[in-house]
Specification:
alpha+beta; eight-stranded mixed beta sheet; four-stranded antiparallel beta sheet
């Protein structure tokens, strides 16, 4: 029987406890012979990251013993934390950032010496150079003095851990890749103020017998071309992804050094922004065939690509959402993390043993063991809506849905607008129980791919250049107003939330526009100048392109920083913050909270000990979700169906 109850007060089986119960996040994937490895982040273990091994007989077991935590801090965002070669695992441990060597079934042994200070030497994005008994990796040195760490490409001896610099001089490096015969090394590099989705160079150099590199040659890239994921084909040709035609398409270098497209130009993306190391969206089953992920305006498909003809065939996994981890391929299989609107992200194995028309997909590990009746799940609807300057923006709308409840006649639901992080990132259509948490209680969710998001080509991505805090805010506002105009949501009960860069968009929307009636910032930026002065190397010049050079354009930083415009705030705000966050320091949230409290507006601040940029511990994930719901219930005046730990709200 369906019960009539106001939106927001519906009882839902999707609780914060069920969301984190046996939930994991996925990191890198590695294939080693017949064994498959992947990395799991476990909120139930305080966010510890563990390497898992699956053998051909289907047996799955942890490889990493306690208390080891597999996580590199290179670029702070890390990933590219481990690799496996012939049954030997090499990984970075979080606490000391040392490299460790571990044979399957054995204990980890340190490969590199202790750094002074601990964690001062960092390693990521490994490949094994078996012929020379070494690892080649990205190395980040925080002990060298100066105001920034020094990044290089380096080799680490597998015999004694000795470190030899191979390439230096650029601000950043990524993706060292050896040719199949070990005679050539390719890599990516870029310099301030570029981010890797702005301008990157792809280099290749011969490798001599003693391991040193010969004269490097520039293959592609520059100040205005983003290059991603160089890979060598089995027959020794160098492939890579480039946005030289607006979209991240696939290219290769011929034997004469010329670069050519692998397919006809497509208005689709074969890559995603290089926020973390080790991301891969394609791999080779043979010299003539690639398995790849292809993004069509926010939705991914798994495809087969004939490298000879350029023929691209969808394998029938449409709407698959590739996770931020690798897609790894060999002659008989492709292993990747993907999800769909009806299923959470999971590690999946695509059997390619026979041929492209006869394959089998096997789920190896789900991000969540929680199963939910479809009657409580809201399906995303892709929408396009008009925004400023006659342009169109994109979003996914999730209407309220709960098979047990209906709203009173005439009532329209509250809307929660979500602003993703990055800001160079994108909304996902994979089943998110954190979104369904809201919709199953009667609150609509609009997940906005504002201008600057990826998956829609470089021109769309570049809309945000020089206009962060303007374009993203306009698109979030216009998306909400579009749904109001369509009669789908209550225009008096609009809320907005976001984390990191999405938190900044949230705060800016509340300070500069009077559309939303409440907001929640999760480790969001309130003071752009403070961020420009106090953040890590990777993003230290990011704001040059998003806002303007600092301090030369301090006027823009003052103009767009919510902390300097609290006079524009007129609605309740709740803030969540990790106290060990190096990317957005706690002072950003604390200053905002004090300013809002001084105005007499309802506000709350929930800090988390031991958390960094993003919440990894199950108890804190639950507290943030339930706390935000409680806050909205008090602000919008609806009763909760379940008891939730109260939040201390000032000025209520």
């Amino acid at each position: 029987m369906v019960t009539t109850a106001p939106y927001g007060s519906w009882k839902s089986p999707i609780t914060s406890k069920s969301i984190v119960a046996e939930a994991v996040g996925f990191g890198g994937i590695a294939l080693d012979g017949d064994d498959i490895y992947w990395l799991e982040s476990r909120p139930s273990e305080g966010g510890r990251r563990v390497i898992v091994r699956r053998t051909p007989d289907g047996h799955t077991a942890d490889v990493t013993p306690r208390p080891f935590n597999v996580r590199t801090r290179v670029h702070e965002y890390g990933e590219g934390d481990f690799t496996v070669d012939d049954g030997v695992i090499y990984f970075t441990n979080f606490d000391d950032q040392r490299l460790y060597r571990q044979e399957v079934g054995g204990e980890p042994e340190p490969l590199t010496p202790e750094a002074d200070p601990a964690g001062g030497l960092r390693y990521a994005d490994f490949i094994v150079d078996s012929a020379r008994s070494r690892l080649i990796c990205v190395h980040e040195d925080h002990t060298a003095g100066g105001h920034e760490p020094v990044n290089t490409l380096a080799a680490v001896s597998l015999a004694n851990g000795a470190l030899i610099s191979l390439v230096s001089g650029s601000d950043f490096y990524a993706a060292p890749r050896l040719s199949p015969d070990g005679s050539q090394l390719a890599w990516l590099s870029w310099n301030h103020p570029n981010m890797p989705w702005d301008g990157v160079e792809l280099w290749v150099a011969p490798v001599s017998a003693d391991g040193s590199l010969g004269t490097a040659a520039l293959v592609a890239g520059g100040q205005d071309e983003s290059i991603l994921q160089p890979e060598w084909s089995p027959d020794g040709r160098l492939y890579f992804v480039s946005d030289r035609t607006n979209w991240w398409n696939l290219y290769r270098r011929n034997g004469d050094g010329r670069v050519e497209p692998v397919t006809t130009p497509l208005d689709r993306e074969f890559g995603k922004p290089h926020w973390v190391f080790g991301m891969a969206t394609y791999g080779f089953t043979s010299a003539g065939r690639i398995i790849c992920g292809v993004n069509n305006r926010g939705s991914w498909s798994i495809c087969s690509l004939d490298t000879g003809t350029g023929q691209l065939d969808d394998l029938g996994l449409s709407q698959a959402e590739l996770g931020r981890t690798d897609l790894k391929v060999d002659a008989g299989q492709a292993v990747f993390a993907a999800g769909s609107p009806s299923a959470p992200v999971s590690i999946q194995r695509l059997d390619l043993a026979d041929n492209v028309t006869d394959y089998r997909v096997e789920g190896l590990r789900r991000a969540s063991s929680t199963t939910v009746d479809p009657g409580y799940l809201s399906a995303p609807r892709a929408i396009e809506f008009p925004t400023e300057n006659g342009l169109t923006a994109h979003a996914f709308y999730y209407p309220p849905r709960n098979r047990d409840f209906a709203a009173p006649d005439g009532e329209k639901p509250p809307l929660l607008v979500k602003s993703h992080g990055g800001p160079t990132s994108a909304a996902s259509v994979s089943l998110s129980l954190s979104i369904q948490y809201w919709t199953s209680r009667g609150i609509g969710v609009l997940d906005v791919n504002y201008g600057g998001s990826t998956g829609f080509g470089r021109e769309y991505r570049d809309r945000l250049k020089g206009r962060w805090g303007i374009v993203d805010v306009e698109d979030c506002v216009n998306g909400a107003l579009y749904l109001v105009a369509q009669g789908e949501v209550d225009g008096d009960r609009l809320a907005i939330d976001g984390g990191s860069a999405g938190g900044y968009t949230t705060l800016a929307a509340l300070a500069f526009r009077h559309v939303f009636a409440a907001g929640a910032s999760h480790y969001g930026v309130s003071d752009l100048a403070a961020l420009a002065q106090d953040t890590h190397k990777f993003e230290s010049r990011y704001l040059d392109s998003l806002v303007g050079p600092y301090p030369e354009r301090n006027d823009l930083y003052m103009e767009r920083s919510p902390i300097h415009h609290t006079d524009g705030l007129s609605c309740p705000l709740i803030l969540f913050q990790g106290l060990e966050d190096r990317i957005v320091p706690p002072s950003q949230a604390e200053l905002m909270f004090e300013a809002v409290r001084a105005k007499g507006l309802p506000c709350a601040y929930i800090p988390f000990e031991g958390e960094q940029h993003g919440f990894r511990r199950s108890e804190n994930i639950r507290r943030a979700l339930d706390g935000e719901l409680y806050f909205y219930s008090r602000v919008f005046g609806f009763d909760l169906a379940d008891e939730v730990e109260p939040v201390q709200i000032e000025n209520l």
